[in-house]
């Protein structure tokens, strides 16, 4: 696992640069898209590169991590709509190139299985963008999630619903209680994982992710088992890391050509 500690704006540029290199080298690449606040600056940087530097997603495909269950299709916080607003409609993805789990399907179990098949049929995800919750969840894999889990229905914890209430006018009652989410094993199948975290509120989760034991109680710790995982954090999110100075030294001495 590579840990990069840098200002938040620089982290977004690093993540966008990794996607840029991937898509330019392999125009048909498959990118994993995340919602939440962490990837927003990454998407802004990708849009800038698309507009100003000719970065094209015309042949690329993308898969979303998760979706709320039972949320109205026109709701602004439906993740399909968030991804459309923040990235898909701002670059040149082809119609239908961005896929997400169907949280309004009549048969949610079948919808989860179908989503798994779509990812496999696409050849898997080449680079997956991730955020992390204060309780260590990635996607909506809450504490206690099976480390071998695949796309499935999950009940959101009280902590996650409270954290997400800010997107629903701070009205907890409006936050859905269930979701469909890629499982931890699904996420681990991606070729490259890039996780971003900023702010002191993420410090304990980042500490557990990087330096704690692999445990279902901190689902993100499964990333320690991935052959190509990159963790991008600012100083506040890195404040609990015991080896913070070493991570800074390692990144500063890294050859520019090596990339993430």
TrEMBL record:
Q: Name one GO biological process term.
A: carbohydrate metabolic process
**Regulation of catalytic or functional activity:** Allosterically activated by N-acetylglucosamine 6-phosphate (GlcNAc6P).
Q: Which GO terms describe its molecular function?
A: glucosamine-6-phosphate deaminase activity; identical protein binding
Annotated metabolic or biological route of this protein: Amino-sugar metabolism; N-acetylneuraminate degradation; D-fructose 6-phosphate from N-acetylneuraminate: step 5/5
Pfam families hit by this protein = Glucosamine_iso
Q: What class of enzyme is it?
A: hydrolase
E.C. numbers:
3.5.99.6
Q: Which Gene3D superfamilies match?
A: 3.40.50.1360
Can you tell me which residues form the catalytic site?
66 (proton acceptor), 135 (for ring-opening step), 137 (proton acceptor), 142 (for ring-opening step)
The record places domain Glucosamine/galactosamine-6-phosphate isomerase at: 8-225
Q: Which InterPro entries match?
A: Glc/Gal-6P_isomerase, Glucosamine6P_isomerase, Glucosamine6P_isomerase_CS, NagB/RpiA_transferase-like
HAMAP family, per the entry: GlcN6P_deamin (MF_01241)
Q: What does this protein do?
A: Catalyzes the reversible isomerization-deamination of glucosamine 6-phosphate (GlcN6P) to form fructose 6-phosphate (Fru6P) and ammonium ion.
Q: What is this protein called?
A: Glucosamine-6-phosphate deaminase
Q: Which organism is it from?
A: Oerskovia douganii
